[in-house]
Sequence to fold (296 residues):
Amino acid sequence: MLPRSYYLDLSSSRLDADLEILVASGGGGAVYKGTFARKEVALKAVTAAQSDNKTREIAPGFIKEVILWKCIRHPNILPFLGVYQPDGKLNKRYIVSPWMENGEISHYLKSNPKVDRVKLIIDIVHGIKYLHSPDINVVHGDLKPSNILVDEEGRACLADFGLSRMKVALSSVSVTSSPTAYTVRYAAPERVFFYEYDLLSTDLLKESDVFSLAMVMWQIFTDEVPFPKCKYSPAVSALIKGGKRPERLVEKTLERGLSDPIWDIMERCWSGVLEERPSLDEVLKRLPVRGTPRRK
Fold:
């Protein structure tokens, strides 16, 4: 059983949501919009893989993951508010988090093309660095723009950082739950071709997040997905396996902050050799903090 303290406290505040109207859906699950404690919130449906339909109980691995998420506190991580279970619906549960009005980072950039993109990347790196820290020790496993949201202050926050892919190694929690999910355009070669790296499909490496970071950075600077001319995942996988990486679009990206030092660190990040990828501290050193304000 999930401890009662992990559910929303409805004793003093009511949650209002129309659970018949989807506002977003995808591999991460269906998302609905509501209000709680006079603030807008997002309700993400717990998927069948995270819940036992026969016993109507949440799977033990998922419980551990929720417990970990509740303990995580960082400005660049989507906050966890609690689990919501509607009255009389024992097989329905939702994970509740603050509603991010600016949405996914790609949509935000299209609406705010002049925003400081380097600042957003710095936010992302700080979020990954926090997840990778010894006390947390979490590999995101599926870093991509759709898993990066922008809050009302224009700050990037990581979402979906492993509710289905999390690998945790803590003294009190130890779980690996279906960590094979990834998105090919952003995935490191060792995630896709794990057998060539003497790895298991379930192995998650922090270096793989660093590779994905570079792909995300490229999209932030270009407003295009990596390998935009390739429609199918196998073709993208073949390119990455062959050492192909996205090209630098100087005319398009220079004014957006993609300098030579940043491009150099991106090339190191998406190296096919794990040992050549830099630490996140090294990445931060190449990202200058500029004085332009955030845009909502």
In short: Confidence is low (pLDDT under 50) at residues 166-178. The chain has nine helices and eleven strands. The first helix runs from residue 60 to 71.
